[in-house]
Amino acid sequence: MRMPRRWLLSTGAVTLALALLIVATIVPAGLRLGVGAQPEDATLLRELAERLLTPPSPGPEGEVPTTELLPGRLPDAPALDLPVPPGGRLLGSVVRRFAPPGVVSVEAVYDAAGRGQDVAAFYDEELARRGYTPAPFGGPGRPTPGFQPTVTTIYRTFCPPGGAGFLSLTIFPRGERPVDVRARLEGTGPGPCGDGGKPGAPPPDRRFPPGLDRLPPLFAPEGVQVQPTGGGGGPNRFSSAAVALTD
What we know:
Layout: H1 5-26, H2 42-53, E1 66-71, E2 89-98, E3 103-112, H3 116-129, E4 133-134, E5 146-147, E6 154-159, E7 166-174, E8 177-186, E9 217-218, E10 225-233, E11 238-245
Parallel strand pairs: 5-9
Antiparallel strand pairs: 1-2, 2-3, 3-8, 4-6, 6-7, 7-8, 10-11
């Protein structure tokens, strides 16, 4: 039995109307077809970014942590004495204040020109001038002596001259784009610095046997893939071996 065309069209219109009604019912207000604040609303964008960067972890007495974004600049307090690398720029920083009051974390983001290894060498030198020392243990603050594997991201951890907290660097090469540099200063707690060494003096590296630190870190030139294969030695001799892959 064939149904009249007018009845079919009426049935289709009713079905479409019901579908639209169901969608309008289950989609929350403000999410319907992009209704709500506009993307160019800078105040809302900052509020959203700061909320997403704030951990939802209250303190023992209900204290709420806070986050402050500082585009294009570093905070006045706590001070983060970190220079901009040659040919680079400061994108900005973020200050996180945790409970109990006084626990502060500062993170800054930089662009840098050149190779990641050159950027790491620049900060090794500049931070040493400012009294920072490589972390003695508990972090990637000092490269392993000998041949270094070809890696994309470079990590450093330093102990500040004041003896409290630590400074970590993450250096991420991004191909043709500028190198991404993240510097994070934790203002309290020993962290990976522990109690090794006096402020401003190179602390002992507890990861390696005595004398191994005389073997310097060996990095491959650009375009060469290196895979360490081992090493060894004794009281008066240490060695490092690796395989290099070239074009």
